[in-house]
Amino acid sequence: MRALCWAGADAVEVRRVPDPELRNAQDMIVRVRRSTTCGADLPLLGGRVPEASAGEVLGREFLGEVVEVGPEVRRHRVADRVVVGAAVACGACWFCRQGLLACCDNGTSGVTAEPEWGQPSAGGFGRPARLGGFAGGHAEFVRVPYADVGAFAVPESVSDDRAVFAADAAPAGWYGAELGEVAQGDVVAVWGAGAVGQLTAGAAVARGADRVIVVDDRDDRLRMVARHAGVEALNHRYVDVLAELRERSGGRGPDVCVDASGMPAEPSRWPLTEADGGAALREAVHACRKGGVVVVLDARPGVVDRFPLGALTDKGLAVRAARRRGATAIPELLARMARDELVTEHLATHRMPLERGADGYALFRDRADGCVRVVFTP
What we know:
alpha/beta, 7-stranded mixed sheet, Threonine dehydrogenase-like Zn-dependent dehydrogenase
């Protein structure tokens, strides 16, 4: 089959790779209909993930049609249209039983990053095999382990272009608001107007926030989130963000600050963001009101230097972080999509065939031509 693979630093290419096969009784095979680019791929594309090997299939977020099921799969049948959560979880370990599917002990493939992070990480699609990952969704077919846990039928009324964002971007954004415990009347600030940041802002509005302010350096993205989520926008190139946020929150600072800025492929491609990806996080800590909550979303390989620990402790802030939500929120999000309460297809600013994967990732990496996400069709 054809698949979009990592080909070394800053390069992707379409290659012929073996068709996936059922390996376990709980597996199923999905024919991909849509897949999207993801910010978690950017460190890999920039050569900043040493565990990656050339030839690994990319793609964290995808949607498709079931073509084969293992003998123990109960919830899905051939021809079902499904969206698949980005995290691979067994549904039975201690973490899964607590609802922490993204922390699953068993959903891994290959060697994990335990030496770096202290504990093994959950597996995921489109991540390097040495980090516990599985072949991704930028392909014609994908093997889905633990299919009854991580895959969900898509309502007939929900389009492919809308539903594909239920795989990871929408759960991550809604998890950001949940981790921040956004409540009625809160002031919420979100750093980053990519797909996850925009969906975090929308989730904060849905939870009753009084004001939601999104901070970014791209006017096109800020206009998009203001139009679709009905929130306020700040371009940090032109304003003093800390002063503006203080002014818009009654002099206290936002109740909840969410860093959804992600990690750039290379420092030079995100002006005002440093190599460690910590500039937005530091600003969020300084902006947040005393006793507030700072939430960190997205993949952050390595370490972040010059973290303002003194501000964190003196202000009594709570910090919560997550790489991904896991699949528990997907059914609710699909239901919201079916009721038009969650609209996401505008985030697919570019659509192209998988053969143009290199062009798509160049657009996404450079945020060129107003690109927020590229959706591929095999």
